[in-house]
Specification:
Chain A: The chain crosses the membrane at residues 37-63, 83-102, 114-133. Chain A: Keywords: Membrane, Transmembrane, Transmembrane helix. The complex is a heterodimer of chains A (259) and B (189). Chain A is built from nine helices and seven strands, in the order ααααααααβββββββα. Chain A is an alpha+beta fold and 259 residues long. Chain A has two domains: 29-160, no CATH class; 166-253, Copper binding periplasmic protein CusF (OB fold (Dihydrolipoamide Acetyltransferase, E2P)), CATH 2.40.50. Chain A has a seven-stranded mixed beta sheet with strand order 5-6-3-2-1-4-7, with no helix packed on it. Chain B is mostly helical. Classes of the chains: A alpha+beta (259), B mainly alpha (189).
Chain lengths: 259, 189
């Protein structure tokens, strides 16, 4: 067959010629199976990575006490927004964009507006991240990092775990006195906390030594005039309401105390 | 062979009957050439690009799932190949992200005015393709010249059906705004 003037040959014949001459061959079925397997693996790894990053963000917020400060009013909410781990949030958003790109190869994603799949992805990673943050995994990894036993990612934990914010302080109550108490922070320092009539106690106030607390207020030298005080569990996961009997004793002893 | 559906012919090709692929080429050759000429503005190398489309279809034919229709699958390969051609020669910008795909849109009703004004619109489209925004051109070509449904266009372009409706509607509006005949046919000032 003459090929000098390929335009004069029918397109179908030209294509069949290329096929029979072996210029183009069919890709084997395993090629497509492998490709879709790699895509699925990539999506699964990305989802797990994003959930881990989001859960680390939740953990950092709990560890620093920032998670609880919105309960102390507008000032607390402002501090909360300023203290969010924006680096982690930015990293998670980049990965979410990557995940959206991979997911968009599937009809269930591209058949609907991007808005819906983005909402679905964000909801999935927020819920997944929140529940993962409730497990001891990050606390154990932080402890390992502090002991120098974490070969990979130790610096990340030490960096985020060691973060302290100007107006948010976490510690354990060591001394309780009238209108003030002392608390020991994670790094071993002591902060003197003064209670004023403007101090908010969204979770009640009947402190005893040994309680874990988060205190909201500006630190001047080693003292804080508290704008808000909350008792939390020792893991910093959630607020701890004071036992009813302890509240009764507290208010019987301080009839004109702030509340 | 002529009585077999596209999907049945594809099955034969997948089983190793390469000659059967010629039947598919003959069935879609003219459609692909027309699509390429409209998409690529009557470029002289449209035939070469279409040949590349068919060769890619052949190379990837084992990835075609029997549960789907062959026509949108082939148009999808053509869509990608044409975009690559445009991108390589940098004649037109290829948008990375389209905000039209972000939020849901209500589907516009096409049936009422389509029957009455389709011929005028098709003629206007034929002469004004190069004046349309790139993102409106392709769905209009697929809808008016290739007779694909909104769902099929959505599969080819991998965008939501509602976005196809929005693009066709806006593309038509651009055409109407540029054509006095269409403006009077559609009763717009």
């Amino acid at each position: 067959m003459e090929h000098h003037n390929s335009n004069s040959i029918k397109l179908s014949q030209r294509i069949l010629d290329k096929i029979t001459q072996g210029e183009v061959t069919m890709r084997p079925r395993w090629h497509f199976v492998l490709k879709s397997g790699l895509l699925l693996t990539g999506i699964a790894l990305l989802v797990l990575t994003i959930i881990f990053i989001v859960s680390l963000g939740f953990f950092v917020l709990h560890l620093s006490g920032v998670w609880f400060v919105p309960a102390f009013g507008w000032g607390g909410l402002g501090t909360f927004l300023r203290s969010l781990p924006w680096l982690l949030i930015g990293t998670a958003l980049v990965f979410v964009g990557l995940l959206e790109t991979l997911v968009s190869y599937y009809p269930f994603a591209y058949r609907r507006p991007l808005f819906f799949s983005a909402i679905g992805v964000v909801a999935l990673v927020l819920v997944g991240g929140f529940f993962l943050a409730q497990t001891p995994i990050h606390r154990q990894l932080l402890l390992s990092a502090e002991r120098g036993e974490l070969p990979v990612g130790g610096d990340i934990y030490l960096g985020f775990g060691g973060q302290r914010f100007a107006d948010v302080h976490r510690g354990v109550v060591t001394v309780v006195a009238d209108e003030q108490f002392d608390m020991q922070t994670h790094n071993g320092g002591t902060i003197h906390v003064t209670v004023t009539p403007q101090t908010r106690f969204p979770f009640g106030l009947a402190l005893e030594t040994g309680d874990s607390v988060v205190v909201f207020g500006p630190l001047v030298q080693d003292s804080v005039q508290a704008l808000g005080i909350g008792r939390i569990d020792s893991d910093g996961i959630q607020p701890q309401p004071f036992p009813y009997q302890r509240q009764i004793r507290f208010f019987q002893g301080r009839p004109s105390g702030p509340q | 062979m002529e009585s077999l559906t596209d999907e049945a012919v594809v099955h034969k090709v997948q089983e190793g009957d390469s000659e059967a692929f010629g039947v598919l080429v003959e069935r879609y050759e003219q459609k692909m050439l027309r699509y390429a000429r409209k998409f690529l503005f009557g470029r002289e190398d449209a035939e070469d690009v279409v040949q590349e489309v068919f060769l890619k279809a052949y190379a990837n034919i084992k990835g075609f799932q029997a549960s789907r229709r062959f026509s949108p699958w082939l148009y999808r390969i053509a869509h990608n190949e044409f975009l690559n051609t445009i991108h390589k020669r940098a004649r037109l910008p290829v948008p990375f992200f389209d905000p039209d795909t972000l939020f849901p849109h209500p589907l516009s009703n096409e049936s009422a005015d389509r029957a009455v004004n389709e011929n005028e619109l098709r003629a206007a489209l034929e002469h004004s393709l190069d004046k349309l925004d790139a993102k409106y051109r392709e769905p209009l070509v697929l809808y008016f010249f290739e007779d694909l449904s909104y769902q099929e266009i959505a599969e080819v372009m991998q965008i939501p059906v509602s976005t196809v409706g929005v693009r066709i509607s806006r593309g038509k509006q651009q055409l109407i705004n540029r054509s006095p005949e269409l403006r009077s046919a559609y009763g717009t000032p």
